[in-house]
Design brief:
Helix content: 25-40%
Bound molecules: zinc ion
CATH topology: Metallo-beta-lactamase, Chain A
Shape: globular
Structural class: alpha/beta
Number of domains: 1
Order of helices and strands: HEEHEEHEHEHHHEEEEEHHEEE
CATH class: Alpha Beta
CATH superfamily: Ribonuclease Z/Hydroxyacylglutathione hydrolase-like
Largest sheet: 7 strands, mixed
Strand content: 25-35%
Radius of gyration: 18 Å
Number of strands: 14
Number of helices: 9
Length: 299
């Protein structure tokens, strides 16, 4: 398990900008989250839940229907031996004015785009995929091997996907297909359970998107789960993981995935990193009343 000393050691290893990047040592590997900015994620409360229980939770967390609080965009960097791996590529400059800060924050952490040896994707949503192309439509990480789960790639390359999405999300599919086509020469696919790059194993966590994966990082007897968007918010997704959640494409399947995942993370006390979770996304899952809570590891 990671201790406080290795955490502090990791932060000290970053020359600049500890606010936008947090690091953990795992054996001789290092796991760092780097900010790509923020995104306003609308809150959509379940319609089918007991009013009293829901009211207690919304007041506890200070949330209400239709709010769209700014949430972090935490891209994970995995440094292990001669590999410098990005988990997701961020938003790039064509998605949101509040996003696209990954490159300057990588630079502040002493990492150039040319240094990235691999990019592994949790899923194909814009804030995870669109940063793979730069403003000239070139691959932003020129030396990187690119890796996406087979099921996720199939979904976004299927011409029927765009029509199956609500109108306000159809641009997600158009944008994903265009980028995946540009990536084809460097792209390979993986399946559930594959060790995609040394120390990172794919764990199928479907529902947020059909082929969504998380990555289990393991090195030096320590482990951490890079969740992607398998768990999106730090309130209802933890307190009631089985409740349906607004941003998931298949809400029932996503809820089923969260229930299993959070039980496992609470049991193992493994470090968890969430793309949109607070405290640079790094924390642990603890049981709390009838559900769980996210305990962020603040510096
Ligand atoms: Zn997503």
């Amino acid at each position: 398990m990671l201790d406080r000393r290795s955490f502090i050691g990791g932060v000290a290893a970053l020359p600049f900008a500890p606010r936008v990047a947090h690091a953990f040592s795992m054996g001789d590997a290092e796991l760092i989250t780097i900010s790509d900015g923020s995104i306003a994620l609308p809150i959509s409360l379940p319609k089918d839940k007991p009013g009293e229980e829901l009211a207690a939770l919304t007041s506890r967390f200070g949330i209400s229907e239709g709010d769209a609080p700014a949430r972090p965009l935490n891209v994970t960097l995995w440094r292990n031996g001669d590999r410098t791996v990005l988990v997701d590529a961020g938003s790039g400059t064509q998605f949101l004015p509040t996003a696209g800060e990954l490159f300057e924050n990588l630079d502040a952490a002493g990492v150039a785009p040319e240094d990235i040896t691999d990019v592994v994707f949790t899923h194909g949503h814009p804030d995870h995929l669109w940063g793979i192309l730069d403003d000239f439509d070139e691959i932003a990480f020129p030396n990187a091997a690119l890796h996406m789960g087979q099921a996720e790639l199939d979904y976004w390359m299927d011409p029927a996907t765009v029509e199956s999405l609500p109108e306000n999300r159809q641009m997600f599919a158009v944008g994903a297909t265009r980028r995946l086509e540009a990536m084809v020469d460097n792209l390979s696919t993986f399946n559930d359970g594959d060790e995609v790059v040394p120390g990172l194993t794919a764990v199928a966590t479907p529902g947020h998107t059909p082929g969504h994966v998380s990555f289990l990082a393991e090195k030096g007897g320590t482990s951490a789960m890079i969740l992607g968007d398998a768990v999106v918010n730090a309130h209802l997704n933890f307190a009631r993981p089985g409740w349906l959640s607004g941003g998931d494409q298949n809400p029932e399947l996503a809820a089923q995935t969260r229930v299993g995942l959070l039980a496992e993370l609470a049991k193992t006390e493994m470090l968890a990193i969430g793309f949109h979770l607070p405290g640079n996304g790094i924390g642990r899952v603890e049981t709390d009343q009838d559900g769980y809570m996210f305990v962020a590891e603040d510096a």
